[in-house]
Amino acid sequence: MKQTRQLMGMPITVEICDSFATEDIFDKVFSYFDYVDKKFSTYKDESDISQINRGEIKEKDYSQDMLEVWRLCEETKKITNGYFDIKSKDGKYDPSGLVKGWAINNAAKLLQEQGFKNFYVEAGGDIEMHGQNSQGKNWRVGIRNPFNAEEIIKVISLTDVGVATSGTYIRGQHIYNPHQTKELITEIVSLSVIGPNIYEADRFATTAFAMGKKGIDFIERLAGFEGYMIDKDGIATMTSGFDKYVVK
Q1: Is the whole model's pTM more than 0.85, yes or no?
Q2: In angstroms, rounded to a whole number, what is the distance separating the alpha carbons of residues 77 and 243?
Q3: CATH number of 2-245, picked from 3.40.190.150, 2.60.120.1440, 3.30.160.70, 3.10.520.10
Q4: Residue 106 in 3-state DSSP?
Q5: Which among 25, 219, 148 is positioned nearest to 15, based on CA atoms?
């Protein structure tokens, strides 16, 4: 069974290949994403994060999920030497560089807790997949050409991992280097990261993209991660172990 619904301002797709999947489990997963959107969306005036940015919710009153996301963001900021920072140029907080992957990973955990073993959850191009697809093979993920969205330039075969892509080719300049806030990131246009789960892949894809061309070297040094970067001239650079996932 496979369903796609529009939530969090993007299409979210869940496919479950286990035979006992029902409509109810899809409703549970999509309800969770709706909850995350209402709590963390910077586009909703009544979300917790919007109220925090207006000073209406103080830290002592943060929900457990907000406290967890805050802790994870601070942890990520420390281990990336400040390249991951949820405080934007205007002084407001925007944890979306971590929240999407965190939410997908939590949705995957929800499915696992219900006994599902063969599924994927995808939101806005970021995916966590487990087990095998309906053909009994690893899941296949396409990496798009950032200069031609209709073209897939790499197909990778994956299971029990997450893959996230950060880039400027769809949403424009929405990622910035916290150490050089006035300079746009123009030397690279796309950076895909494979990690042990989508939470890890997503936060480090955001971090690596903020580093510009140095980002692929950062991924290379991370144990358990692989990356694929495309620069402004269309030249691709991949980490040393990425090729083992490539189908074509």
Answers
A1: yes
A2: 29
A3: 3.10.520.10
A4: helix
A5: 25
